[in-house]
Amino acid sequence: MAPPGRVPQTPDLRYLGRVAHESSPRAGFPVPLVVHGAGGTGKDFVLDQLALARIISVTDRHPREGERDGRDYYFVHPEMFQTLIDCGAFAEWAPVLRYSKGTTRRVIEGALASGNDFVIKTDIQGAATWRTRLPGCVTVRLLGLPSERSLEEHKDDLRMRLAHRDAPAHEVDVRLMELEAEYATGCDDYTVVNPWGAAESAVANLRSIVATERLNPLRPAPRLLLPGA
Fold first, then answer.
1. Residue 128 domain-assigned?
2. Are 12 and 104 in contact (CB under 8 A)?
3. What is the extent of the structural domain holding 140?
4. Is the dihedral of CA 111, 115, 121, 122 positive or negative?
5. Does residue 216 lie within any of the structural domains?
6. Residue 72 domain-assigned (yes or no)
7. How far, in Å, CA of 125 to CA of 72, rounded?
8. Pairing of strands 138-143, 19-20
9. pTM, 2 dp
10. Would you say residue 226 lies in a domain?
């Protein structure tokens, strides 16, 4: 069964991407904010409240309940996703479990040209790629508890969050594996805690990071490097 939405015959149409929630440019270099964290830690809710321009990526999986084509992702056939790979449309892409997702060069170049701050929601693998592919980006790890808390405490917190949204057992297992990787990484510019029921503190911290990095004289002007550059 194909995902909903029109599938273009050539890869140079809407699936090359766009940025949601555009705003007016401000002084200083734009901040590409790369946010990653295990599924269930509240990334979508926090980023919705942050209200920065948000990169919309492409995926060849089916939409989940409540997701909308063109808002959460562009949902395409696997054949179209492969076509985009073959023509070099992606700035970054990777297989994720049983599907693939990626971000097009055109959407990143457009976001940079706008002069606006923008956010890329990704996973630990994608964050590692953006660190090298997008100099000048700012990477943020989102955790449910402070990083000094034990891994088992983090797992208990994530189980509670996933139980609250009735996540199936197989999803819980996957998210716990994601959490182990996220907990171990130490390569990010910042770590932000998103406490259960108190997302406003995470949103405030992310806003402060963006404001600080906008005027950080040591952060280079962001630019997109193509693979192999």
1. yes
2. no
3. 14-211
4. positive
5. no
6. yes
7. 19
8. unpaired
9. 0.78
10. no
Contacts of the segment 128-133: beta carbons below 8 A, 24+ positions apart? 128/187, 129/92, 129/94, 130/32, 130/34, 130/92, 131/34, 131/187, 132/225, 133/91, 133/92, 133/224, 133/225, 133/227
Write out the E strands in the chain.
Answer: 19-20, 32-36, 53-55, 58-59, 74-75, 90-96, 99-104, 118-122, 138-143, 190-193
CATH number, domain containing residue 167: 3.40.50.300
Determine contact, residues 55/69, Cβ cutoff 8 Å.
no
The tens place of each residue's pLDDT in the chain, 229 residues long, gives 434 333 333 333 344 444 444 444 456 789 999 999 877 778 888 999 998 999 999 999 999 888 889 888 999 999 999 999 999 999 999 988 788 999 999 999 999 999 999 999 998 888 989 999 999 999 999 887 777 677 787 788 778 877 877 778 877 777 777 777 776 666 789 999 888 778 899 999 999 999 999 999 999 999 999 765 5
Can you read off the two tokens belonging to residue 52? 């920065």
Phi/psi of residue 59, nearest 5 degrees: -140, 155
Q: Can you read off the two tokens belonging to residue 15? A: 């699936």
> Which amino acid is located at 75 in the chain?
F
As for how many domains the chain has, the answer is: 1
